[in-house]
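One chain given next:
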Amino acid sequence: MITLRTGDRAAAFEVPFRVYPASSPYVSPMRADLDRILDPARNPLVTEGHGRFELFTAHRDGQPVGRIVAAIHDASNIRNGTRRAQFGFFDCANDAEVAAALLGAAEDWGRERGAAEIAGNFNLTAMQMTGVVTKGFDAAPYTDMMWSPPYLPRLLEASGYRPVFDMTTFAYDLDRLDPAMLLGPKQRAILDDPDYQWLGVTRRTFAARMEDARLVLNAGFDRNPMFVPLTPAEFTFQAGEMMWIMDYRLPVIVHHRGAPVGALLCVPDMNPFIRDTRARIGLATPFHFLRHRLKRTRAVILLYSVDPAHQNRGLNGAMLFRLATALKQAGYASVGGTWIADVNGASLRQAEKIGARPLHDLAIFGKQLDGRP
């Protein structure tokens, strides 16, 4: 018999460790991070009044076998004229009964609050992981990349869901990438233009540069239909932890005549460290962290945005040139890029141009809650 609980964050953390084999590519968020994100008393999505959510866990014989978070992002619905609920953090055993119970709970929760549709995985905000993996299940994800097992799309489809938005994640092998190939006349002109300032990030300037990144992210993604501009509290809630993991040789922040216009935040891939610690802080954590810092060869781009007024001028390529040069000088072997929408032809062509290899195909799955097909 399946029973459901609400708000059990400890059980939610345990679910993937119980239902996915240790050999799977899945990497959990750190336990403290997951607890913080799923605490409505601490998450600015709730505390600032932009949305609400409920955590459900499924239990069989007292053991957690699935989890899901149902959410409504009120600010997004107002901005886009929608009545949409979302589900996220959906992980469960290969069991149709468990999946149906969790999805049914999320649907009922959304329907009771006036939602006409539901879609996911969407882990609360644009600063969290998105999608359900549909191809590339053997590829190890980088930090902030989604991984889910092959049976999850089948369980969703059995409950009436269908793919509504397709995406792809990529990796770049740096030994095959010559940064100079990113430079054309426009990119060289940008690099030579004294009106553009290339700012590094240090611990002393971290807060100011993260505010620059927030402003550029909000401007650059403003027309994305799933995006809602992030407040300072929301951005800091997600990005503040980067101070402790950042390789300060990598970030690229660009000002034009004193105003932020470009941001490219790249950090070391923390997934090997998290796997070694099983996502828990313990006595051996400092040892694992030091070993990771000495052996790290993978990095991941977490944020990449250009102010619309400076798009199509060559700034994209100039920023990538600076990053690729820094990565190679620092000894990294590969860099991952979080998802690109399959409808974003320009970004896909750019990824192909510089030798990106696809890692995962993903999709957001959706379902109508108001009886429409």
User: Anything to note?
Assistant: The domain at 2-167+363-368 is CATH 3.40.630.30 (Aminopeptidase). The CA atoms of residues 26 and 224 lie 28 Å apart. The longest strand covers residues 162-173.
